[in-house]
Amino acid sequence: MTADHANFDPSSKAPAGRPGDCPSDGTRSTDDRPPQLPRPAVGRLSLYFRELHRLKESGTSTINSRQLGQLVNVSAAVLRRDLSAIGTTGRRGVGYSVDTLIQRIGEVLGSSQNWEVVLIGVGSLGDALLRYRGFSRLGFELTAAFDIDSSRIGTTIGGIKVRHAQEMESALKDRPPNLAILAIPAETAAEVANQLVALGVSGLLNFAPVTLKLSPRVAVVNVDLASELQRLAFAVQSVQ
Ligand SMILES: NC(=O)c1ccc[n+]([C@@H]2O[C@H](COP(=O)([O-])OP(=O)(O)OC[C@H]3O[C@@H](n4cnc5c(N)ncnc54)[C@H](O)[C@@H]3O)[C@@H](O)[C@H]2O)c1
């Protein structure tokens, strides 16, 4: 996964309704905006977050850096550095409160607020995304889906009725979503991205294999599974 615009600098545009409350154990950051973090650190925070939710579900209330690090294959030193960068420190002999970490990492990653997300393109990929139930747990609510294929328009997938892309502007202009997922062919991605930005969308998850050139105030994350496979192939060669 690669991030182009705004490079995980969410401070460039504060989404509406971002909670400013910080944990009550003295782990407040200097202001309410998320800290600027290198991309690998953001990826690791996301993994900690996932494991912390699992721990909470299994009834664990505290965890030390070595244990949490082991769950995601990260050294205790790296984990402590990541958590310290977002203003959280563990207590000697006790470790970290699972609840506090979930709250703080959730704030930093934006998962402690609700994000409205629209999907553009309901082909094979978009169809699977609409059916996926795991987004809402992290605060992402798919609210609308658009396509241009008449065989898709009017169908309901994952509880969302697919509408014609021509209706996008009228449907979204009064209440633009925070985020949009682009699951459309590369040829149309730039035009649709510009339309969405003009409507007020501030973040795009782009699956189309094209580099979008947008205002630096718009965050773009490109998902490219083919590149990830290349990275994997490279890694496999390196370890053999
Ligand atoms: N990066 C990845 O890991 C990865 C993996 C699979 C697919 N992709 C990319 O994701 C995109 C979607 O892939 P897919 O397999 O679902 O393709 P698909 O052809 O099955 O679906 C694309 C859908 O977009 C719709 N569409 C076309 N133009 C549109 C527009 N202007 N507005 C709204 N909808 C429009 C089409 O009608 C179609 O339903 C492609 O760009 C593909 O290259 C990326």
TrEMBL record:
Subunit-structure text: Homodimer.
GO MF terms, alphabetically ordered: DNA binding; DNA-binding transcription factor activity
NCBIfam families in alphabetical order: PRK05472.1-3, PRK05472.2-1, PRK05472.2-3, PRK05472.2-4, PRK05472.2-5
Superkingdom, taxonomy of origin: Bacteria
Keyword Isomerase (UniProt): no
Location within or outside the cell: Cytoplasm
HAMAP family per record: Rex
GO cellular component: cytoplasm
One GO biological process term: response to redox state
Residues that coordinate or bind NAD(+): G121, V122, G123, S124, L125, G126
Positions of the DNA-binding region: 47-86
Function: Modulates transcription in response to changes in cellular NADH/NAD(+) redox state.
Record InterPro entries: CoA-bd, NAD(P)-bd_dom_sf, Rex_DNA-bd_C_dom, Tscrpt_rep_Rex, WH-like_DNA-bd_sf, WH_DNA-bd_sf
Region feature Disordered, mapped onto this chain: 1-40
Keywords: Cytoplasm, DNA-binding, NAD, Repressor, Transcription, Transcription regulation
Family per similarity comment: Belongs to the transcriptional regulatory Rex family.
The species this protein was found in: Novipirellula herctigrandis
Record carries keyword Zinc-finger: no
Protein name per the record: Redox-sensing transcriptional repressor Rex
Span of domain CoA-binding: 110-211
Signal peptide stretch: none
